[in-house]
Amino acid sequence: QFQLVESGGGLVQPGGSLRLSCVASGFGLGLEAVAWFRQAPGKEREGVSCLSKSDDHTIYQESVKGRFTISRDNAKNTVLLQMNSLKPEDTGVYYCAAHGLCLTGVPLSSSPYHTWGQGTQVTVSS
Questions:
Q1: In the chain, what are the helix, strand and coil shares in percent, each to the nearest 5?
Q2: How far apart are CA 85 and CA 18, in angstroms?
Q3: Could you give the CA distance from residue 32 to residue 54 in angstroms, rounded to a whole number?
Q4: DSSP secondary structure letters along 21-51
Q5: Hey, which residues does 59 pair with through a beta bridge?
């Protein structure tokens, strides 16, 4: 059974940082494209970032470029999202996903992804 479990969310002040982790079980994350999505209250789920299978390509949503960094630790079967200079508009439930697509020139979409975590809440507020 494929499973993803996120952690690292919480309450942080504007300008602060958080690092989200997503641990996989039942399969190797190092063999798959991985992604982070988020959903704010009353809004649709949106792509934040993805990392291709071979780690040679990343996509970032325009609003998080220069602030967020996606990476993976194959030894721990984990994908990470380092979030710096957080803003109130970054608030939402963050989900990691695998078994999808992260391709050059293709907008990041949730529909190709088949495996999802349960989400972790990120709240940016003073």
A1: 10, 45, 45
A2: 9
A3: 8
A4: EEEEESS-GGGS-EEEEEE-TTS--EEEEEE
A5: 50
The single-letter code of the amino acid at 65 is K
Quote the strand ranges of 84-119, DSSP E. 92-98, 115-116
Q: Which token pair is 58?
A: 């990343």
Q: Which residue has the tokens 């602060």?
A: 16
**100: DSSP letter:** S
Q: What angle do CA 20, 90, 78 make, to 5 degrees?
A: 15
Measured distance CA(24)–CA(27) in Å, rounded: 7
Q: What is the pLDDT of residues 66-107, one digit of tens each?
A: 999 999 999 999 999 999 999 999 999 999 999 999 988 888
